[in-house]
Amino acid sequence: MFSILVSCLLAFSVPQTVFAEIGGDLNCTQYNGTMFVYTPSAVACSNSISDASCEVLYPTEDELGYPAAGNSAGRPIACFTTAAETPAPVDPDMKKAALSNCAKTCGFCCITDDYNCPNAQFPRLNCATITNAQCLDPNWRTIIATDCPSACGFCNQGGCVDAVVDCANDRSICQSVGMQEFVNQNCQRTCGRCGSSTGSPGVPGGGSCSTYQADSSSSCTAWAGNGFCTNTFYTEAQRKSFCATTCRIC
Ligand SMILES: *[C@@H]1O[C@H](CO)[C@@H](O)[C@H](O)[C@H]1NC(C)=O
Ligand SMILES: *[C@@H]1O[C@H](CO)[C@@H](O)[C@H](O)[C@H]1NC(C)=O
Q1: C-alpha–C-alpha distance, residues 246 and 225, integer Å
Q2: Which mutation among 21, 26, 36, 75 tests ligand 1's pocket best, with the greatest number of atoms within 8 A of CB?
Q3: Can you give the pTM of this predicted structure?
């Protein structure tokens, strides 16, 4: 009886699995011209429990498997609802549980704290195309941290990241005489070598006036943390027009 029920359910669910489509909400997806697909930052984080446990808690019936950058696999249904089949309403509690345990398996990385912040207003590169390989690449990491922090989970780093990963494995290198050139170049965050890392991050010292034109953007604090006020890629006029108060531009 039960197995008949199951095979009926499977039979009915076939059309849905063939036309794989992201159900629930569209967080961490983008329209690629044909359909909604996951962004790279949808799956850029790690699950906080093992991947194997997440796959048991959040099984997928989609023929495409689990969410991956650029695919349109249906989000495992338990990631966002208590219902048994889609379309189903989003249950905030289910989503919250998925976010804290299995954000990667559910394709929700982009809305976890480390991935959920504004990027620079005028980033030097297209934040939406950044891949996981770039997030780990010493040549890219420091640029991404100031311009596209949300792409690599750098939101709470104030624009200051180590260029290479794993500096913190051995913090004694920060003091080692023969390692100074290396750590200045590669372990800026771990060894405290980012410019003006004391005080308010990324805000230059005051100018000659004592009042400033009001900020026109409400995101200035976050942008300042990501280097907006000091990044010479922006003109002084641009900084002033958005964040005169936060950046203290007369
Ligand atoms: C993201 O999820 C929230 C809550 O489920 C929803 O209100 C919002 O519309 C979603 N955003 C997108 C782009 O789907
Ligand atoms: C959109 O993504 C789907 C699934 O990965 C792919 O088959 C399709 O070719 C993509 N469309 C464009 C215009 O890139």
Answers
A1: 10
A2: 26
A3: 0.65
Mutate to test the pocket of ligand 1, among 21, 22, 25 (most ligand atoms within 8 A of CB): 25
Predicted confidence (pLDDT) per residue in 218-233, tens digit: 888 888 887 888 877 7
Contact 139, 49 (CB under 8 A): no
The letter for the amino acid at 168 is A
Q: How far is the CA of 144 from the centre of ligand 2 (A)?
A: 26
CA distances from 235 to 47, 125, 146, 177, 228 (A): 40, 17, 16, 38, 10
